[in-house]
Design brief:
The protein is mainly α and 164 residues long.
Length: 164
Amino acid sequence: MITEATIQKVSEALSSIEEQDLAASQIEQNQPALYNLIFGYPEDYSEFEADFQCIFGMLIWKTMIDEYPEIKKISFDDIESTLEKNSIILTQIDELADGDAMVFVEKLTENYQQSELLVFAISALVYADEEDDGSEENYVIREDMKGSLLLVLKTSLDCLNEAR
């Protein structure tokens, strides 16, 4: 199971543009279906939301690859079926949680194999808008985009976990 220390190490390693470019290239070459999911963000995403999806998608991929180097190739069908399954699961959990974020996270990560990594991504997603520094650049994830970002990140993690 992936630990917080592993996540932190990978996060620091991906802090440079060069490392991000290398990771993106490796994903594209080794996992093209996953690459399309991570880097295929909707046109209505802000630049920050698109960057967030790409960087956290790379973080999930790199953390999983570092921990489990023998991950099999993920197919486009795997991505599609996991997206559909996760869309249903996230909707059901959201209804059960009835607007309580803590209940939502608890239900989502209950018995989840890579809970540390999923909680890390959720925390970043939830708290991203708290880093708004008031500058002209908008470093906020809009509330209506958080669900689609979570869907992509959880689907990436689920597919990688299944392929290990």
